[in-house]
Amino acid sequence: MQLKSTVPKFYEMNLDQRLKFVKNFAKLNSSDVKTLKNLGGLSFSTANSMVENAIGAISFPLGIATNFLINGKDYLVPMAIEEPSVIAAASKAAKIAREKGGFVASADKSLMIGQIQVIGLIEPFSAGQKILNAKARILKAANEKSRTLAKAGAGAKDISFRVLGTELGNMLIVELIIDVKDAMGANIVNTMCEAVAPLVEEITGGRVLLRILSNYATKRLARARVSFSKEELGKDVVDGILLAHAFASSDQYRCTTHNKGTTNGIIAVANATGQDTRAIEAGAHSYASRNGRYMSLTEWSKNKDGDLVGSIELPLAVGIVGGIASVHPLAKVCLKILRVKSARELASVMASVGLAQNLAALRALVSEGIQKGHMRLHARNIAMIAGANGKLIEVVAKKIAGEHNVTVQRAKEVLKKLKQ
Predict the structure, then answer these.
(1) Catalytic residue positions?
(2) CA-CA-CA-CA dihedral for 195, 197, 198, 199, to nearest 10
(3) What would you report as the CA-atom Rg of the chain, rounded to the nearest whole angstrom?
(4) pTM score
(5) What is the fold of 111-214?
(6) Which pLDDT tens digits describe the chain residue by residue (420 residues)?
(7) In 108-185, which ranges are continuous DSSP H helix?
(8) What are the structural domain ranges in the chain?
(9) Domain spanning 10-103+236-367 has what CATH number?
(10) Which end of the chain has fewer CB within 10 Å, C or N?
């Protein structure tokens, strides 16, 4: 019988029960489960091989978002994040989405852009034309740096140029378009750019300065689309979400927080699967500004039946081979739990989670408010700090009461319950 990612009361299971369910769903072995139980999964020797001057490792809590149905396939989604309510909110949104068939998602081919900066040119546009005329030579030199990609039908595929007018004069930017398959691709892109730099100098007569990938991966977009039933959300909530989205679309201050809520989900999955979160964030926010002002990464509208329809599009340069994804033992287990077969499938999952996270945040904001969902989890953290110290509990209870507009007695009751 096929297991589904919709799991009744997953949050009520103890650790062994949760791990047993995940083990069965993803067909994990005992070594995988041991890695999960290790609460970090990273040995010092591995950490020391990854960074300089290693002294240990810092772990984020790792949880499972349930209920995700994407392109007809069920997923358990590992999410590593320190912020409370994110995983629960994503799971709730995914559960509501199942009523209308879940998420439909796709991702472009894994095409990355490598940039080569050429300076000292009298006629940069003419030099750019020479680059295009020598396209075959340049691509051949680039692909000699990765026979594996070339044999797989990937590798350097195209070349283009742009002439930039800057405060320090005109410069030629030569851009390699490279299919990196299931890798994030930073290393091979940089290697290819450096490899062809001498040839670019020979062809143009200029001097090459920078040779590096761009994290603005506009040829590597991921998209997701979803519908939410108006009966499940409520007509007032649907209308409220549309008004909230209009607010975000018109005000950069609100839109920044709006997009932060979306990337809460995306980056949590990225953390769990060993992705370059800084590259993802930079690319996402750059894409949000592509039309000259900062805009929402998501779009929300109402269809003819009154259901809420959402979509997302953003660059997602992610990989399932190479980099941390192939080194960190816990990242490898998380990818195994996800059961993704390609970088494009991983990007599709991440886009779907981002869309779910945005819906969950908007739904909370236009109904009970964002703090109600945070309060219990926030209070639990404080209760752990307070311990058995009665005086400290009194201080903490007053703080909670002030922040969350509840009575001190109610705050004490919550703390007492959470300590048990």
Answers:
(1) 83, 260, 276, 374
(2) 90
(3) 24
(4) 0.87
(5) Alpha-Beta Plaits (3.30.70)
(6) 567 888 888 988 988 999 999 999 999 999 999 888 886 777 888 888 888 988 788 889 999 999 999 999 999 999 999 999 999 999 999 999 999 999 999 999 999 999 999 999 999 999 999 999 999 999 999 999 998 898 889 999 999 999 999 999 999 999 999 999 999 999 999 999 999 999 999 999 999 999 999 999 999 999 999 999 999 999 999 999 999 999 999 999 999 999 999 999 999 999 999 999 999 999 999 999 999 999 999 999 999 999 999 999 999 999 999 988 888 999 999 999 999 999 999 999 999 999 999 999 999 999 976 555 555 555 555 555 555 455 556 666 666 666 666 677 777 676 665 554
(7) 124-133, 135-143, 147-151
(8) 10-103+236-367, 111-214, 371-419
(9) 3.90.770.10
(10) N
Take residue 139 and report the two structure tokens written for it: 């691509």
- In one-letter notation, the amino acid at residue 375 is M
CA 205 to chain centre: 41
b/e for 96-134, b at 16 or more Cβ within 10 A? bbbebebbbbebbebbbbbbbbbbebeebeebbeebeeb
